[in-house]
Amino acid sequence: MKLDDIKISKAIIEEYMDELVDHLDVDVAIGGGGPSGLAAGYYLSKAGFKVSLFERKLSIGGGMWGGGMMFNKIVVQEAGREILEGEFGVDCREHENGYYVADSIEATSTICSKACKAGVKIFNLISIEDVMIRDERITGLVINWAAVEMAGLHIDPLTIRSRAVIDATGHDCEIVKVVEDKMGPRLMTETGRIMGEKPMWADKGEASLLENTREVYPNLFVAGMASNAVHGSHRMGPIFGGMLLSGRRVAELIMEKLG
Ligand code: 48F
């Protein structure tokens, strides 16, 4: 076959545009492609929900690739292993009593692949810069190219409509921050505001994560590290079981709400 450069360009542009247009109106829009966002998307898609996930960076996987301080291993506890090995098929080796270790590269790439295969439509290089709110409910996200954001260009964004939104943007809880900025102290937290992340304490951080994985404003849910940051709990470092459990938990909560 003789290759035509223009046909290659046309194939890329047309296929991308078709998918983007198809995903302007979804059941669930997820901000952030770290472990919690990917796990949430995986479970929701597997259950038949239409899901778009927006990730600012080129690579998907957030903080999972680098393990702990660039030692590319992650630790999970038994409950996390049930998801990592049981659901995703990632090898986990018991290092000592209940501390399982997995290769962070295998873990991240496998979860990403499983999420895609389950049907999550991932759009990388796109940043969430705002939310849509109607009658005090989140109704979607406002997105722009990450390159536009990085260059500081004054270019207006586009919008995605969704029945639920998940803030899985990690430590910075960027989507909840926008809601707090625009709506004031109306979050479903003790103070109505973002309570802020506390110092590293793996045991406490992991223990509080599932409780903190919840709806924080009508139709806006938090998952992963964003959950602890919003509710004033601890970070937990390179133990990742909670992130996967939080992703599954938020998926269950949304399934319950959306029916
Ligand atoms: O930080 P990240 O991996 O979040 P997570 O799923 O997992 C946290 C762990 O990695 C680690 C930890 C484990 O114990 O504490 O930190 O909660 O992934 C968040 C992703 O969101 C993207 C960001 O680039 C990263 O890949 N992100 C952040 N803000 C935006 C965004 C935004 N406004 N728009 C799009 N993507």
From TrEMBL:
Fe cation binds at residues 156, 171. Glycine binds at residue 235. Gene3D superfamilies: FAD/NAD(P)-binding domain (3.50.50.60). NAD(+) binds at residues 36, 55-56, 63, 128, 154-156, 225. Pathway: Cofactor biosynthesis; thiamine diphosphate biosynthesis. Its EC number is 2.4.2.59. GO terms for molecular function: isomerase activity. Keywords: Iron, Isomerase, Metal-binding, NAD, Thiamine biosynthesis, Transferase. It is an enzyme of class 2 (transferase). The keyword Lipid metabolism does not apply. Its cofactor is Fe(2+). The keyword Transport does not apply. Coiled coil: none annotated. It catalyses: hydrogen sulfide + glycine + NAD(+) = ADP-5-ethyl-4-methylthiazole-2-carboxylate + nicotinamide + 3 H2O + H(+). Belongs to the THI4 family. Involved in the biosynthesis of the thiazole moiety of thiamine. Catalyzes the conversion of NAD and glycine to adenosine diphosphate 5-(2-hydroxyethyl)-4-methylthiazole-2-carboxylate (ADT), an adenylated thiazole intermediate, using free sulfide as a source of sulfur. PANTHER family: THIAMINE THIAZOLE SYNTHASE (PTHR43422). Homooctamer; tetramer of dimers. This is Thiamine thiazole synthase. It comes from Methanothermobacter tenebrarum. The gene is thi4.
